[in-house]
């Protein structure tokens, strides 16, 4: 279950000197955006989960109070205890003031204070920030109209539904005295009335007496003294929320709005519209293929009746049986996928059961009730036993086994719903386990190093986890306005897990709180959740939490973890990675085997464990101290300066952003901003108590694409030979060396060694390379603007700081410094710069600047995929070269939230932005031109033409297949220009742009025939869901290729070069060994190409950086081969090849000696690697063997390259030979 991919931080290693690596991308045209996705394509199970919704259409859903008894007392609602379920029912005075009080006191917002608790949860809640928005229609955007205060509908849904609208009586809420004898308004408990709690956390008896004393309440008159906004809010509440069924329909309309192709939906009512043989399930999108399912769902929802009892057991059984279907290639088969024309055994099944009352009637069958065996073998071979304490919460009940909802739920979880899948290895046990909580503190048996978490019984039987790998059903139960006999809190939950508390016996034929306990038990038994929603706002939140959990499970994959590595030049290395079950992160330091370069186990430390404390699975250490969140040095940019990341230091705009609800469709602020800051700093209390943020196994977030960068002493490779008159030369005293780069090296030779890595917890982290302790962290301001920080507290897989940082020694503000520049990939449209010269004393003053799409001149900036690097130009400036970024073709957010970048008017520009490194200000935007189609500029490489340590040109490809050459040689930025060097389309290749996209950085190497640089790169991309397949899109169908393109200078007549002007080398494969031809590449040709046309390796592509071996003029080429189009079997393979950079053929006896691979002879140049050691982005790991003239690739023992190690002076050898 573990996948390991070792990568190298090559972007900051041997060839950075004058050969600057300028990673970047550029904005596509509106018609040529890019498929992007937050989860690595090889780990993303693109299988949309099944969701069945059971909606209560019983008569009690028409009531205007919630629940059936008054809260906290168990007594009825007095004069309102009647069966009038029409929308026109009034609130008679006989019900007491409690009937017209949504919450006890809306002035109190602290959830721990009982005055903030619900009273009649269906009534108007006047708490500040509660915003009653109308229902959303099927498009998920359009709202029903606001109600009118003087003419509010009794039932706004029936009046405004698009299909079959009806009539509704209107009320003047300013004069109609239907609200407990008053016009519009509400009751609240007087300030001086005290409420206290008992030891179980309930309102105590004396307080209940005070609570239900009518004289202790006061009326607030909205009709006479309310503001216009309050009157509008009250009118919307009355027309769309004032009964249970209105509130539920409105909440569902808003909760289902973000769904699209990311989920498949079917539905039923408890009484009417039950599941039948023709019930089908479709992706939640309106088109003919999906039978216009969105419109049909919303029409059904808005038209659901109010009549009958509550036969929830029978409805739950119908849902369970639906997911046992095997009806072939039909939409009635929940496992059949129309797009792939096959059944998908990894499809996950979920059921939302929303009900307002105690179940009755329609009890389950004997089969679904059978939980009596003392032991049973589960489909994965593990044992369920009623004698094991770890599983007590599932089986420990008072009294004899009864026919209960809990039994039904356990049956459909523990049963393989499609046992026929188990007969085929391709489909057996493919459902991805979901294990977000690996804690073992209750029973004390820690998870052993390397142990499958599912083999630890405490983890396996933790209800927060769902370890089932077979087709099963997870149930989410919403009790709308009802509560049970045992308090649903953390203390009760722990006692149930320990076996210290038994579930109450469920008695058929009775309607009491024990049936609510049974619903909670059912949710636990199916590894779902129970929500007791006491008001419409809690219902919206409950649905949001359910949807987030479903999407989180969908995002997990069959591989539980993956890693990547950057290796030091010594005997130790750093490996970063993530665990997809909860998207927690790891960064470990290990000794390296001196022969193979393989990391030795166990690691010396794990920064995630050092930060989090407790037991560390990766290292085997126990009881590590917890890093005090208050002591962490975390900073951000407030729009004008660096500040500490603490609530008191944030700007007003940042506070407003953090107070927003994480779901953009909920416009009412949740005001949890300060708690979010605490959570992000590492405070854990909010994970198990209000506001119940996402639970984490580690404070460190997933490190996915941000390859770690190791920095100790200065390694820029510069010499004190900058041009006369330059700032660098003027600052250096030739007599004493003061102000020189040599002095800088001497002063910082013993600088505190630090590892930098971005993580999807919203931070760029700087870790002590000796012990793994965090030195400091940085939170980009752009994450406030996008809402990503809010979502990290709510959802597990939110991309934030996901790109590899770039660190370079630069001369700014009159002195040499080390500067880190970071970009975010899909985390945001921004770039930031930090002064990391002294990482052990980093402060807010070392935050230099941020540049985003909101900065002057930044409107063109899209998502920053490796979009920034540092260069020195002829205008005397050190600059950051920034590509204008990717723009998404589809909704990039995994939770379906809108992405404004999709509609950005600037997406039709492809540009290279040049920023002043000192200030972050834009110097020049250089737009590409001369191509019919251009979009998504990829990683540029800077190049110094004359060896003066000043970059003169930059070269980059784009995803249309163009190769661009930017002339930056003039000191006047207005004179900078761009040429189209080469096109991968046409001229003998397929004519359609985008079939051979360039997503990697070109590398300049020696061309002996012309004494000019030759630019080497490959084609292909691996960015989105579509890219994990080997068919379906032009770039997947290929074939892709490697190219070597000769540089003829600025404005050369040879441009644009075509593919038919290149010499082709032919690649062949025998088993796993690859060979190539050695055709000559004379000066009359424009370069060379290697088509990737091995028939058995369909859709092979280059998405990993080229590794140059300058001393021998060889290029290490790495390819990726998607495993196939089966989303239930994700993974990848690839190849590693070494070729002559000048010809693309077999390296010869020229400069550097005869190359070979391990065991290679004659024309053999590489091997196919059948493992996930092949990286998906960045650069491959290359490690020089100590004491030997050779290079190895950790994780790929087949590859051993007898070559000189890379070093910083290598680029000078290149210049000397050109």
From TrEMBL:
Pfam families with a match to the protein in the record: T4P_PilY1
Gene Ontology CC: pilus
Signal peptide coordinates: 1-31
Localization (cell): Fimbrium
Presence of keyword Transmembrane: no
SUPFAM superfamilies linked to this entry: Quinoprotein alcohol dehydrogenase-like
Gene Ontology MF term list: metal ion binding
Keywords: Calcium, Fimbrium, Fimbrium biogenesis, Metal-binding, Signal
Metal-binding among keywords: yes
Domain spans labelled PilY1 beta-propeller: 731-1072
InterPro entries hit by this protein: B-propeller_PilY1 (IPR008707), Quinoprotein_ADH-like_sf (IPR011047), WD40/YVTN_repeat-like_dom_sf (IPR015943)
Major subcellular site: other
Record field: compositional bias (Low complexity): 363-377
Region listing for Disordered, in residue ranges: 362-385
UniProt family annotation: Belongs to the PilY1 family.
UniProt protein name: PilY1 beta-propeller domain-containing protein
Organism: Rhodanobacter denitrificans
Lineage: Bacteria, Pseudomonadati, Pseudomonadota, Gammaproteobacteria, Lysobacterales
